[in-house]
Amino acid sequence: GSDGSQPAPAALGRAQVFTAVVDTFLEKLVAAGSYQRFANCYRCFYKLQPEMTRSIYDQFVSQLQTSVKEEIQEVKDEGNLEVLFNSLDKIVEEAKNQEEPAWRPSGIPEEDVRSTVVPYLLKHRSYLRKILKEKEEENRKVAKSVLAGRDKITELQQLIQARKQAWQ
75 and 24, same structural domain? Predict the structure, then answer.
Protein backbone atom coordinates (compact mmCIF):
# COMPACT_ATOMS: atom_id res chain seq x y z
CA GLY A 1 0.00 0.00 0.00
CA SER A 2 0.95 3.65 0.28
CA ASP A 3 2.44 3.16 3.78
CA GLY A 4 5.08 0.83 2.34
CA SER A 5 4.02 -2.17 4.45
CA GLN A 6 2.69 -4.18 1.52
CA PRO A 7 3.40 -4.23 -2.22
CA ALA A 8 1.01 -2.41 -4.51
CA PRO A 9 -2.13 -4.45 -5.41
CA ALA A 10 -1.10 -4.48 -9.08
CA ALA A 11 2.00 -6.49 -8.10
CA LEU A 12 -0.11 -9.03 -6.20
CA GLY A 13 -2.23 -11.74 -7.74
CA ARG A 14 -5.97 -11.66 -7.20
CA ALA A 15 -5.78 -14.60 -4.77
CA GLN A 16 -3.31 -12.65 -2.61
CA VAL A 17 -5.43 -9.51 -2.80
CA PHE A 18 -8.48 -11.55 -1.76
CA THR A 19 -6.56 -12.98 1.22
CA ALA A 20 -5.39 -9.48 2.18
CA VAL A 21 -8.98 -8.19 2.00
CA VAL A 22 -10.19 -11.01 4.26
CA ASP A 23 -7.37 -10.33 6.74
CA THR A 24 -8.17 -6.61 6.74
CA PHE A 25 -11.85 -7.40 7.27
CA LEU A 26 -10.97 -9.58 10.27
CA GLU A 27 -8.73 -6.88 11.74
CA LYS A 28 -11.49 -4.29 11.42
CA LEU A 29 -14.07 -6.71 12.79
CA VAL A 30 -11.96 -7.35 15.88
CA ALA A 31 -11.26 -3.62 16.23
CA ALA A 32 -14.99 -2.85 16.02
CA GLY A 33 -15.69 -5.43 18.72
CA SER A 34 -13.04 -4.17 21.12
CA TYR A 35 -12.54 -5.58 24.60
CA GLN A 36 -13.89 -2.34 26.06
CA ARG A 37 -17.19 -2.73 24.19
CA PHE A 38 -17.36 -6.39 25.20
CA ALA A 39 -16.76 -5.51 28.84
CA ASN A 40 -19.43 -2.78 28.67
CA CYS A 41 -21.96 -5.32 27.36
CA TYR A 42 -21.21 -7.65 30.25
CA ARG A 43 -20.54 -4.99 32.85
CA CYS A 44 -21.86 -6.96 35.83
CA PHE A 45 -19.75 -10.00 34.98
CA TYR A 46 -16.74 -7.78 34.26
CA LYS A 47 -16.99 -6.14 37.72
CA LEU A 48 -17.08 -9.54 39.41
CA GLN A 49 -14.34 -11.27 37.35
CA PRO A 50 -12.37 -9.01 35.01
CA GLU A 51 -9.71 -11.69 34.29
CA MET A 52 -12.39 -14.22 33.31
CA THR A 53 -14.10 -11.63 31.11
CA ARG A 54 -10.80 -11.00 29.35
CA SER A 55 -10.26 -14.73 28.86
CA ILE A 56 -13.78 -15.19 27.45
CA TYR A 57 -13.27 -12.22 25.12
CA ASP A 58 -9.93 -13.59 23.87
CA GLN A 59 -11.50 -17.02 23.25
CA PHE A 60 -14.46 -15.43 21.51
CA VAL A 61 -12.24 -13.36 19.19
CA SER A 62 -9.99 -16.32 18.47
CA GLN A 63 -12.91 -18.60 17.64
CA LEU A 64 -14.55 -15.89 15.54
CA GLN A 65 -11.38 -15.39 13.50
CA THR A 66 -10.89 -19.13 13.08
CA SER A 67 -14.52 -19.61 12.08
CA VAL A 68 -14.44 -16.81 9.51
CA LYS A 69 -11.12 -18.05 8.07
CA GLU A 70 -12.47 -21.61 7.81
CA GLU A 71 -15.66 -20.39 6.09
CA ILE A 72 -13.68 -18.26 3.65
CA GLN A 73 -11.33 -21.19 2.94
CA GLU A 74 -14.34 -23.45 2.34
CA VAL A 75 -15.79 -20.91 -0.11
CA LYS A 76 -12.39 -20.67 -1.85
CA ASP A 77 -12.15 -24.46 -2.09
CA GLU A 78 -15.74 -25.05 -3.23
CA GLY A 79 -15.59 -22.27 -5.80
CA ASN A 80 -12.07 -23.24 -6.89
CA LEU A 81 -11.20 -19.56 -6.43
CA GLU A 82 -7.40 -19.99 -6.44
CA VAL A 83 -7.49 -21.47 -9.94
CA LEU A 84 -10.05 -18.92 -11.14
CA PHE A 85 -8.05 -16.01 -9.72
CA ASN A 86 -4.86 -17.31 -11.36
CA SER A 87 -6.72 -17.79 -14.64
CA LEU A 88 -8.06 -14.26 -14.46
CA ASP A 89 -4.55 -12.95 -13.74
CA LYS A 90 -3.29 -14.74 -16.87
CA ILE A 91 -6.11 -13.31 -18.99
CA VAL A 92 -5.38 -9.80 -17.74
CA GLU A 93 -1.66 -10.26 -18.37
CA GLU A 94 -2.30 -11.48 -21.94
CA ALA A 95 -4.70 -8.59 -22.57
CA LYS A 96 -1.99 -6.05 -21.71
CA ASN A 97 -0.26 -6.83 -25.00
CA GLN A 98 -3.41 -6.23 -27.06
CA GLU A 99 -3.39 -3.02 -29.00
CA GLU A 100 -7.07 -2.82 -29.89
CA PRO A 101 -9.61 -2.23 -27.14
CA ALA A 102 -11.57 -5.21 -25.89
CA TRP A 103 -15.19 -5.61 -26.90
CA ARG A 104 -17.70 -4.21 -24.44
CA PRO A 105 -21.47 -4.67 -24.58
CA SER A 106 -23.41 -1.63 -25.73
CA GLY A 107 -26.30 -2.26 -23.37
CA ILE A 108 -28.64 -3.03 -26.27
CA PRO A 109 -28.79 -6.84 -26.55
CA GLU A 110 -30.10 -6.82 -30.13
CA GLU A 111 -27.10 -4.80 -31.33
CA ASP A 112 -24.64 -6.90 -29.33
CA VAL A 113 -26.02 -10.12 -30.78
CA ARG A 114 -26.16 -8.63 -34.26
CA SER A 115 -22.51 -7.61 -34.08
CA THR A 116 -21.62 -11.23 -33.37
CA VAL A 117 -24.13 -13.02 -35.58
CA VAL A 118 -24.01 -10.86 -38.72
CA PRO A 119 -20.35 -11.61 -39.59
CA TYR A 120 -21.07 -15.33 -39.14
CA LEU A 121 -24.18 -15.12 -41.32
CA LEU A 122 -22.33 -13.18 -44.03
CA LYS A 123 -19.57 -15.77 -44.04
CA HIS A 124 -22.16 -18.56 -44.19
CA ARG A 125 -23.99 -16.79 -47.04
CA SER A 126 -20.73 -16.52 -48.96
CA TYR A 127 -20.09 -20.22 -48.40
CA LEU A 128 -23.63 -21.10 -49.55
CA ARG A 129 -23.24 -18.94 -52.70
CA LYS A 130 -19.99 -20.73 -53.51
CA ILE A 131 -21.64 -24.13 -53.06
CA LEU A 132 -24.61 -22.96 -55.17
CA LYS A 133 -22.28 -21.92 -58.02
CA GLU A 134 -20.54 -25.28 -57.84
CA LYS A 135 -23.88 -27.14 -57.93
CA GLU A 136 -25.18 -25.00 -60.79
CA GLU A 137 -22.01 -25.72 -62.78
CA GLU A 138 -22.32 -29.40 -61.97
CA ASN A 139 -26.00 -29.32 -63.04
CA ARG A 140 -25.03 -27.60 -66.34
CA LYS A 141 -22.50 -30.34 -67.04
CA VAL A 142 -25.02 -33.06 -66.15
CA ALA A 143 -27.73 -31.39 -68.27
CA LYS A 144 -25.28 -31.15 -71.18
CA SER A 145 -24.41 -34.82 -70.69
CA VAL A 146 -28.13 -35.77 -70.56
CA LEU A 147 -28.83 -33.83 -73.76
CA ALA A 148 -25.84 -35.47 -75.43
CA GLY A 149 -27.14 -38.85 -74.24
CA ARG A 150 -30.59 -38.09 -75.62
CA ASP A 151 -29.09 -37.08 -78.95
CA LYS A 152 -27.08 -40.28 -78.96
CA ILE A 153 -30.24 -42.31 -78.16
CA THR A 154 -32.14 -40.55 -80.97
CA GLU A 155 -29.24 -41.21 -83.32
CA LEU A 156 -29.13 -44.87 -82.30
CA GLN A 157 -32.91 -45.20 -82.69
CA GLN A 158 -32.66 -43.76 -86.19
CA LEU A 159 -29.77 -46.08 -86.97
CA ILE A 160 -31.75 -49.06 -85.65
CA GLN A 161 -34.78 -47.98 -87.70
CA ALA A 162 -32.66 -47.60 -90.83
CA ARG A 163 -31.03 -51.03 -90.38
CA LYS A 164 -34.42 -52.60 -89.61
CA GLN A 165 -35.84 -51.22 -92.86
CA ALA A 166 -32.76 -52.25 -94.73
CA TRP A 167 -33.01 -55.78 -93.40
CA GLN A 168 -36.69 -56.13 -94.24
Answer: yes
How far apart, in whole angstroms, are the C-alpha atoms of residue 4 and residue 70?
A: 29
Rounded Cα–Cα distance for residues 72 and 54 (Å)? 27
The answer to whether residues 120 and 90 belong to one domain is no
142 domain residue, yes or no:
yes
DSSP 138: H
Give yes or no for residue 44 having a pLDDT over 80. yes
CA dihedral angle for residue 92, residue 94, residue 95, residue 96, rounded to 10 degrees: 90
Residues sharing a CB contact under 8 Å with residue 20, sequence separation 6 or more, in sequence order: 6, 12
Q: What is the mean pLDDT of the chain?
A: 87
Total structural domains within the chain:
2
Higher pLDDT pick, 153 / 116: 153
Write the DSSP assignment of 49-115 as a string of letters.
-HHHHHHHHHHHHHHHHHHHHHHHHHHHHHTTHHHHHHHHHHHHHHHTT--SPPP---S-HHHHHHH
Per-residue confidence (pLDDT) for residue 128, from 0 to 100: 97
pTM: 0.48
